[in-house]
């Protein structure tokens, strides 16, 4: 009799997992408490996969041999509590994909900030070097679906802490941890240590011969790294000192040194600007070098990479005022990096769903660089209270259009309007992409 797998959540990862599980002979049932998008329903019907929406039927879920949980579903969910109480094994989509990847290799990237940029840059390096690879995971395309429909020798996977929470055997050949800052604490019982432990799960199954790339300048990473038994080859990156093995920046030159060889290039040649992107570029360069890619190809890729949409994306200059879309800044640390790179007086658009933010860490930058804050969210009180003594003007708005108009009104020629919300977007928007798009549309309509 075939093994019964229940897929909870019918988003990108859920559908991909369902297709792969069906292909591998599982009896598959998909259950989504909300509504399922038409495009996903069509896929389920095409593959003759049984599904339900708008509910979770206990009798059909609690008889599973295994449950694949979508990353968006918290452990506090009532159905999850019942599944755990019954002792049913719970896995994530990347665990299922890993089981069936064959001889393919994985570069897995996690971290609180910079992981999407780093993942995209590693993919660009691998493609430039001629590797047959796919970009999967948290960044858009389901890892499981890629394995089912178009398997590749290499997978470049962006991985969230939620996906790592439910791995058992998943093991990346190269693991990259960009940094760890307080994020998603609402999902980790407001205990930072739980979130830290979750991020370090990326190396839990690594063996000798695998590689672990991490930031030696990240305090949280360095305070915790010795609490884990790490068997893989360590490659740190830093701006503080020279390393024999790893990557560092000295006098405007980056040096990337792995077992194989050493490469150098000027940071002024990096396509990505800003200090945080120098870290991301070092991590990506190390990943490419550690799998033996030629340094000329790595150099070409680092110089030709184009920045991502919604991540410090220049939108337009309107009557001397620059508009920058950093909608992907869904936590305080991302906003800190954005502010740090500002060189002109800034009107900052902040706000959304607060995940337990401590605004103290950006206070100094706000005092130094921000002349006005425009709140954009349904509940702006916490932001107003946090900065009422630091900024002369704090305005409240409840749409992207209103926020853009207000910011433009407050700006003078030579100023920057920066959308870098430090919060999730679910109060007014579908997701951070929707928020960024509405911001860009509003700017274009000025």
Short description:
It contains 17 helices and 20 strands. By secondary structure, it is α/β, with parallel strands linked by helices. Residues 109-287 form the Mur ligase central domain.
Q: What do you see in this structure?
A:
It is a single chain. This protein folds into three domains: 4-91, Rossmann fold; 95-304, Mur-like, catalytic domain (UDP-N-acetylmuramoyl-L-alanine:D-glutamate ligase); 313-444, Mur ligase, C-terminal domain (Protein-Tyrosine Phosphatase, Chain A), CATH 3.90.190.20. The strands form three sheets. It has a nine-stranded mixed β-sheet, covered by helices on one side. β15 and β16 (321-325) form a beta hairpin. The radius of gyration is 22 Å and the shape is globular. It is built from 17 helices and 20 strands. It is of the alpha/beta class and 446 residues long. The model has no long low-confidence stretch (mean pLDDT 93). The longest helix is centred in the middle third of the chain and has 16 residues, at 275-290. The chain has helices at residues 12-23, 38-46, 58-61, 78-85, 93-99, 115-128, 143-149, 161-165, 192-200, 219-224, 275-290, 295-304, 332-340, 363-369, 381-387, 400-410, 432-444; strands at 4-8, 27-32, 50-53, 66-69, 89-91, 105-110, 133-137, 154-158, 174-177, 211-215, 233-238, 246-250, 253-257, 262-266, 313-318, 321-325, 346-350, 370-376, 393-397, 416-419. Belongs to the MurCDEF family. It catalyses: UDP-N-acetyl-alpha-D-muramoyl-L-alanine + D-glutamate + ATP = UDP-N-acetyl-alpha-D-muramoyl-L-alanyl-D-glutamate + ADP + phosphate + H(+).
